[in-house]
Specification:
Layout lengths: L16 H23 L2 H23 L4 H5 L3 H12 L6 H14 L14 H12 L1 H4 L2 E2 L5 H8 L10 E2 L2 H7 L3 H5 L3 H6 L2 H18 L6 H20 L7 H6 L3 H8 L10 H21 L6 H18 L19
Antiparallel strand pairs: 1-2
Helix pairs in contact: 1-2, 1-4, 1-12, 2-4, 2-5, 4-5, 4-6, 5-6, 6-17, 12-15, 13-15, 13-16, 16-17
Length: 338
């Protein structure tokens, strides 16, 4: 019997969308565990609730658009959107908060533009921004300790007077509103941060991001540019006047910084496609986050920075497309004129 052999080169087939989304879900597991360990089962309840809502709304939109539901649900994009929003909102969020956010994220921010691959904005972040602007009290009610299941059920059902004393400001909120900013930036900052749950949460998101880099789901360009620009700006201003400006450690290791760097800004649909453009895109998100955190009205500006740069992504792609091999760089023309 003859055995047929194939000569090199041998290539591996590219990952499909479902495989990529599955890896993203795996990478988010450490952060989900860290949030649950820090604040109780509220984040786990939010994650399950948001995923169920996202899949339901995705199925409804596909049915209304006369698309095969099973085929499109397999890509896992709705699950990732629900999971990201569930991890973004407070563990004490009432049930209706996720409903409003995902109604805006799935039918409007995604399917109104034609579905996955055609949405100009990150659905999870546009939902988060809407909720933060519309319901600032509910969105900033973060627990200061591990919350019991009874408290979670009270909050989830929309009744929370008995848990108000268990909530407080996040480190970024505290720095922005505190009159004792120098005390936050003094020599005790290391012990304060090491005892703070946000350090563990950001480390968990960073661990998931490293996993995505190792699996080649994302590239290094956006996270490195994002974190580098934020670190450089915060270091420069902190060295200039440490009593007024937050330290780079506060900017990098609290809030949603690591989540944004590895899971939000790297969204392949709404980010530039070329590596040069990704560097500019990531760096500008870091700059906008620092500007809004320092001089704007919101302590953690991830959603607004990402959405603003989503608007600029097509222009960045146009200006920074790499030269095609064997061709000269074409000058940008306006109405056919150089």
């Amino acid at each position: 019997m003859m055995l047929s052999t194939l000569s090199s080169p041998h290539t591996h087939p590219p990952k499909n969308t479902g495989q990529v989304m599955r890896q993203v879900c795996y990478a988010l597991c450490p952060a989900l565990l860290a949030l649950t360990f820090s604040f109780g089962i509220g984040s786990l309840v939010n994650a399950i609730w948001c995923v169920c809502l996202a899949v339901t709304l995705e199925s409804l939109c596909l049915k209304l658009r006369h698309k095969p539901i099973g085929f499109y649900l397999k890509d896992g994009s709705a699950i990732v959107t629900g999971l990201l929003l569930g991890l973004s909102i407070t563990p004490l969020a009432p049930w209706w908060l996720a409903v409003i956010g995902l109604i805006f994220a799935i039918p409007i921010a995604k399917h109104l533009y034609g579905g996955l691959g055609q949405n100009p904005f990150n659905p999870a972040m546009i939902a988060y921004a809407l909720l933060l602007i519309s319901f600032p009290v509910e969105m900033t009610r973060w627990p200061t300790q591990v919350i019991t299941p009874e408290h979670i059920m009270q909050s989830f059902s929309g009744y929370w007077p008995s848990i108000d004393k268990l909530t407080g400001a996040t480190p970024l909120d505290l720095f922005k509103t505190s009159a004792q900013q120098q005390a936050i930036n003094n020599n005790t900052w290391l012990s304060d941060y090491l005892n703070n749950n946000w350090l563990m949460i950001n480390a968990a998101f960073a661990l998931g991001g490293i996993y995505l880099l190792a699996k080649k789901i994302i590239t290094w360009h956006i996270p490195v540019a994002f974190l580098s620009s934020l670190a450089l700006l915060s270091t420069a201003f902190f060295m200039f006047e440490d009593a007024r400006y937050a330290s780079p450690v506060l900017h990098l290791l609290t809030g949603a910084t690591m989540m944004g760097a590895f899971f939000i800004a790297t969204d392949p649909v709404t980010a530039p496609s070329a590596n040069q453009g990704r560097l500019v895109y990531g760096a500008m998100i870091g700059v906008l986050i620092y500007v809004i955190r320092t001089w704007g009205g919101y302590p953690d500006a991830l959603a607004f920075a990402v959405l603003l740069m989503n608007l600029a992504a097509p222009l960045i792609d146009t200006l920074l497309q790499p030269r095609t091999f064997g061709h000269d760089t074409k000058p940008i023309t306006w109405r056919g004129k150089k």
